[in-house]
């Protein structure tokens, strides 16, 4: 099974000194979007693009694909 992880986002936010509160109140990121990111649920590429623009980073600083090596697919 392949899993999308937004783990890199939290490290990038920390590195950039930007809080989730700031994402909501200064950059207009919705609480629903942040909830989806925390739960590694699907978000749009536009959302990923917006986060990269806000943070001045690359997509790999926001999301990663985790492959389960036990999977046959």
Describe this structure in words.
- The protein has 4 helices and 2 strands.
- The chain is mostly helical.
- The protein has one domain (about 1-65): 434 Repressor (Amino-terminal Domain) (Orthogonal Bundle).
- Strands 1-2 form a two-stranded antiparallel ribbon.
- It is globular, with a radius of gyration of 13 Å.
Question: What structural keywords apply?
Answer:
73 residues, mainly alpha, 434 Repressor (Amino-terminal Domain), two-stranded antiparallel ribbon, 4 helices, 2 strands, 48% helix, globular
Helix and strand topology:
Layout: E1 2-5, H1 7-16, H2 20-25, H3 31-38, H4 45-55, E2 64-67
Antiparallel strand pairs: 1-2
Instruction: List how many beta strands DSSP finds.
Output: 2
Give the name of the CATH architecture.
Orthogonal Bundle
CATH topology name, in short, is 434 Repressor (Amino-terminal Domain)
Helix content class: 40-55%
Name of the level-1 CATH class: Mainly Alpha
Order of helices and strands: EHHHHE
Task: State the distance separating the first and last CA atoms.
Answer: 7 Å
The fraction of residues in strands falls at 5-15%
